[in-house]
Design goal:
four-stranded antiparallel sheet, 315 residues, globular, alpha/beta, 10 helices, Rossmann fold, eight-stranded mixed sheet
Length: 315
């Protein structure tokens, strides 16, 4: 993905919490209409990056460009511009909805922000509700009266009522049983086609990522270590860390199960990441160069990049 073809472009983005650098010089492009998966262990910086993309966390360095506009500078940084272009679906949908507002008022709020409280806009919201299987009897309920699946769908309608170009979904199937997960993923795919949406899906669930995404970006200690098309990356990961994630992923089909790949040691502290390759302290393929020299993200085959001195595939 080239910068010129990207709808969303991240250039050397840094996100800090005091002394902790949660996202470190990260560069990544997302094309219009694609679904990008963002994966990695807890603490790798996925959610911090998601919050930065939607303006909930300021970046310390770098740029985030949406359709060529710097979202962190000038007029674009003013309240109201960004939410109309990029929306976040929170991992806990009930907690993200005000407990003092009914579903009706929660869904009217984005229309008020858009300045579109006229009947046609409300009809659009009701159509979205119907598409997502939400009856109008829910409009009088409060968030705590909704099931987990209903709350997630209300959050989705609320986000789409802003008519965004991009939806960032943080663990969109968390807490849902398998049948409900499948229904939700089917809905997301249908809505993407209907509304020309671009998705960024943040998840630990590699089965979800494998089903819904076009490309995957793998994060480790605040940096991207591998990016590629979902199918090839899942089938033949190039980074040792990605291979370990894939090997640990539970699958029902015994023919697709991988031999477990045990990582050495513990996850280093993000307050003091190792020199050289950040993964070298746990990597089964680490060599002396890995301890001294930080690898850069580079192409190994068309559309597939890896930050590793000694990748598992390519050269």
């Amino acid at each position: 993905m080239t910068a010129s073809a990207a709808l969303l472009q991240m250039d050397s983005v840094v996100v800090r919490y005091g002394r902790l650098t949660a996202v470190d010089r990260l560069s990544l492009a997302v094309g219009a209409g694609e679904t990008l998966g963002l994966v990695g262990e807890s603490g790798c910086g996925k959610t911090s990056l998601a919050k930065a993309l939607v303006g909930l966390k300021p970046i310390s360095q770098g740029r985030i460009l949406l359709a060529g506009t710097d979202t962190t500078a000038g007029e674009a940084a003013k309240r109201g511009w960004l939410p109309q272009r990029i929306q976040l679906l929170f991992q806990d949908p009930v907690a993200s909805l005000s407990p003092r507002l009914t579903v009706r008022r929660l869904l009217q709020e984005p229309l008020r922000i858009r300045g579109a409280l006229a009947p046609p806009a409300w009809a659009e919201v009701r159509r979205l509700m119907a598409e997502l299987g939400l009856g109008e009897n829910l409009l009088a309920l409060y968030p705590h009266q909704l099931s987990g699946g209903q709350a997630r769908r209300v959050s989705l309608v609320r986000a789409l009522a802003m008519r965004p170009q991009i939806v960032v979904a943080d663990e969109p199937t968390a807490g849902l049983d398998l049948s409900v997960q499948g229904d939700l993923l089917n809905l997301l795919t249908h809505l993407q086609r209907e509304l020309a949406l671009t998705y960024i899906v943040v998840s630990h669930n590699l089965n979800v990522i494998g089903r819904i995404t076009d490309r995957v970006a793998v994060m480790y200690l605040g940096q991207i270590v591998e990016v590629g098309a979902t199918g090839p990356l899942f089938a033949r990961p190039a980074h040792h860390y990605t291979a370990a994630l894939m090997a640990a992923n539970p699958v029902l089909d015994p023919r697709r199960r991988r031999k477990p790949l045990v990582l050495k040691g513990e996850l280093p502290s993000p307050y003091d990441p190792p020199a050289g390759c950040r993964f070298h302290t746990r990597c089964p393929g680490a060599q002396e160069r890995c301890r001294r020299e930080e690898p850069v993200l580079r192409p190994i085959i068309t559309g597939h990049q890896v930050a590793c001195h000694f990748p598992l595939i390519g050269a």
